[in-house]
Amino acid sequence: MKVLVLGSGAREHAIVRALSQDPDVTQIHVAPGNAGIAADAVVHALDLTDAMAPTALASELGIDLVIIGPEGPLVIGAADRLREAGINVFGPSGAAAQLEGSKAFAKEIMAEAGVPTALAHVCDTRAEVEAALDQFGAPYVVKDDGLAAGKGVVVTDDRAEAIEHALSCFEKQDGRVVIEEYLDGPEVSLLCITDGLAVIPLLPAQDFKRVFDGDLGPNTGGMGAYAPLPWAPAGMVEEVVARVVQPTVDELRHRGTPFCGVVYAGLALTSRGVRVIEFNARFGDPETQVVLALLKTQLSHVLEAAATGHLADFGPLAWHEGSAVTVVVAAENYPANPMTGDVVTIQDGLGEAYVLHAGTKRDEHGAVVTAGGRVLSVVATGASLGQARENVYVAVNHVEIRGSHHRSDIALAADEGRVHVPS
Ligand code: AMP
Ligand code: GLY
Questions:
Q1: Is the pLDDT at 150 greater than 60, yes or no?
Q2: pTM to 2 decimals?
Q3: CATH number of the structural domain spanning residue 87
Q4: Is residue 334 in some structural domain?
């Protein structure tokens, strides 16, 4: 099978790594990729803001399966153009990707499908924002309705800051704001593969969105993750599939916009039960790095089954024993204004751990340099969560980038038994 992966993050590098260990994959092409991906696959320059560009490239290369990583190409309909050309694609249509592209749309689908989520108001004016903030009270949750690369959400006790964020969202074209009730309880990311009909869950993972240890500082795209979740209640995955993901997939199909790809359910396990925080229409980053580290089933098989509508015949996935942890190494000043152009040095002796690239490129001298906020994802597995943590942090110390930073507490609370679902 000849596969084309679209994207340039550590998530795409994780997908490439899984495909490169898959005996049925003969060629891996990536567009646009990064410096690390270029060592493991054939990379192609491509403008992902052009919805037709992936179809042209896939046709030229004779690709059997296209896997779309980021949300950008999905919401502009890149998967639609590929399907129209008769090319197998793993990734939802532009219409179905609105599940991620518009928080207001996601709320509408959840209301129709009876999926539990935070109460919310969609606001178009400052007066509506203030009324909604006062109805829910602090902590205030203020979200940009549209795509914002994980940085559109402000959670704060400061009413003035909440209003300020709302006003900044209104400044965008067609800007709208969603104000939500605050959800207590630990967060879970459950990524599910679907062909629009059947749903197969991956291992549950937890992501660390805040930039600093102790969940301090602003939200980021994600600073680390681990899987599976030793503290998750028995039957949690089955419950989320039955109450959240399957009804959502069914609702989208009934509307005539079936969803083929990954439904990523971002959940809070609150004192009143499971609630959806958000949906994404793609593999999570950095969750994918840990989930694929443990996947035993051939990735090409399950994604092809989804892309061709045969997922109902596909049995449950097989997993390696143990745990996986990933730590993101970020550039100086990420998430505000990341520095670029710093040399990336990785010393030998990573052991079982490995480094996936995100914001990297080769400079004019051939050296690998930083080219984005999240630079690398270091990944390790281990027989226990504690072992995986130890392995990953030994490896992180082999990475040298001037001014870079990472969190030192990824998976720590879970390893120490300090994560509790409120009862
Ligand atoms: P989102 O982009 O919607 O995933 O939000 C980013 C992060 O903000 C989430 O991972 C949560 O940590 C936090 N967050 C979002 N919505 C809520 C909520 N209703 N209650 C508490 N925290 C939230
Ligand atoms: N890990 C969060 C995201 O992929 O959006």
A1: no
A2: 0.94
A3: 3.40.50.20
A4: yes
